Amino acid sequence: MSALSYMHDQDNGKGVEQSGEAASTRPESDIARENEELSRRVTQLAEADQRKNEFLAILSHELRNPIHAIRTNAWVIAQHCKQLEAQESTAAIERQVSLLSKLLGDLLNVISLSKEADLELEVHDARDLVQEALAATRQSIEKHHHRVVVDLGTEELPVNVDPERMVQAFMNLIENAAKYTDPGGIVTVTAKRVIGQVELRVRDTGIGIAPEDVSSLFELFKRGRSGRVRGAGGLGIGLYIASRTAREHGGQLEVESAGVGLGSEFTMTLPLHHTAPADVLEDEEQPDDEAPSAAGKLTILVVDDNRDAADSLSKLLQAYGHEVWTAYDGLEAVDLAREKRPLVALIDIALPKIDGYQVARRLARDQWGRTMTLIAVTGAGLDDDREKALAAGFRYHLVKPIDHAALEGILARL
Ligand code: ADP
User: What is the tally of structural domains in the chain?
Assistant: First the structure.
C-alpha cells in the first residue's frame, strides 16, 4: 500500500486500504489531485511550524525581560544588604533565575534545531574546548559539591569543529553528570587519542540509567525515568543536541551505564584533524588586546525601555564605582550618548522610537562614537540575532538575564 492511497481512503472516511494494483489503475487526474492535496498539507504544516517557532522566539524574548530585571534587582539588594537572610534570599532568587534562564535557552535551542545546522568549522585543540566547557559549568559542579577529575593528557588533540556548538555539547554532558549525581559525587572528564580519533569521556558516580531508557535517551524531548523523577527541570534536549552535534562533525556519542544507581559514562568520538591547531588559530581575532584602556572607573550609558531593568542595572554599575547615565528609548539614547560621550553603552535591542541596531549605526556616524564599546543586552538570543548585533557595530552580545560575572569580566577588560 502506498502512503498516498492510504491517506486518500482515510480522507473519504472509508478507512479501507487500497491494494497497489487498484491504485495503479486509478486515473491520473485522481493521483494529480492527491499530490496537490498532499503538497497543500505539507505547506500548511510548514507554515504552522514556522508560526510555532515565531511564537516560541517571542515568548522567550518577552520572558527574558522580566527575568533580567528580577536578577539585576536581586544583585542590587545583595550588594546593599549584607544581612544573612537577605543574602540567602537573593541567592535563592539567583538559583531560580538561572533555572528559568536555562529553560529559555532550551526553548531557543528547539527553534534552532528545526533549522539546518550552519557549522562554522575551525581547527581547535579539543582539550581547550573541554576546558572551556568545564569553566562554564563550574558553578553547577560546585553547587552539587562534586569532585571533578580531569585528565586531558599531554598530547594535542586537533579537531575541525564549530567551537561554539562543540563546547555546548560538552557542557550538556558535564551539566548532566552534575545534575544526575547526588551531592559529593565524582565527575571524571578525560580526553585522548584512539586510532585516528579523539575520544572524550564524561563519567559520573550518579543515579545511572535504567536499561530500558538507554536506547532512547538521545531522542528529542526524551527524558529518562531518572530525569522525570528528580524533577531536574530540563526539557529533554541536551543529549539530543550533544549527539546530533557529534554526528554533524563526523563523530558519535554513546552511553553506558551498569544500571540505576551505578553511574553513567558518555563517550564522544570525533575525527582527529591532521594539522596542528596553532597554524589556523594564529589568525584568530584578539579583541581584548584592542580594548580601549581606562583605569577602573568607566563612563557607561544604560539603555532599556523596561525601566526596572534599566534602573537596577544602572544602580548596580554605580555600586561598582562607574559613572552611569540611563535612557529609556532609542532616540534618547543617541542624544544622551552624544552629550555625555560614554566609553561604554549597554543597549537593549527592542527599543521604542528606533531600535538598538539603529542606535548603534547612528552612533557610528561620529568619529568618537566608533571608539565606544557597544554591548547588546537583549532577549533575542538566536545565532542570527548575535550576527545582526555584531554587524550593527556591537562588540559584545549578552542575552537576558545577563550573567553579571560575564559583564564584570568585560568591563574589567576595558
Ligand atoms: P534533560 O536533562 O533536560 O532531561 P537531556 O537530553 O540532557 O535532557 O537528558 C535526557 C535524559 O537522560 C534525562 O532526563 C535523564 O533521565 C538522562 N540522563 C542524562 N544524563 C544523565 C546522567 N549523567 N546520568 C543519569 N541520567 C542521565
Answer: 3
Ligand 1 centroid from CA 220, angstroms? 11
Measured by CA distance, the residue closest to atom 25 of ligand 1 is 208
CATH of the domain at 244: 3.30.565.10
Q: Which domain holds residue 106?
A: 30-113
| pTM of the predicted structure, to 2 decimals | 0.61
Q: State whether the beta carbon of 160 lies less than 6 angstroms from ligand 1.
A: no
Does the beta carbon of 144 sit less than 6 angstroms from any atom of ligand 1? no
Residue 362 lies in a domain: yes
Q: Are residues 235 and 175 in the same domain?
A: yes
Say whether both 146 and 270 belong to one domain.
Answer: yes
Residue 233 belongs to some domain of the structure: yes
Q: 162 with 259, same domain?
A: yes
Mean pLDDT by 10 residues, the chain (414 residues): 35 42 69 90 89 83 89 91 88 87 78 69 93 89 93 93 91 94 95 91 95 87 66 75 90 93 95 55 35 64 94 91 95 96 95 94 90 90 79 89 83 83
**For residue 226, what pLDDT is reported?**
61
What pLDDT sits at residue 140? 85
What is the rounded distance in angstroms from the CA atom of residue 403 to the CA atom of residue 414?
17
Q: Is 169 in the pocket of ligand 1 (CB under 6 A)?
A: no
Residue 115: per-residue pLDDT: 64
What is the C-alpha to C-alpha distance for residues 60 and 145, in angstroms, rounded to an integer? Answer: 31
Domain contains 1:
no
Say whether both 360 and 221 belong to one domain. no
pLDDT at 109: 73
Q: Residue 186 falls within a domain, yes or no?
A: yes
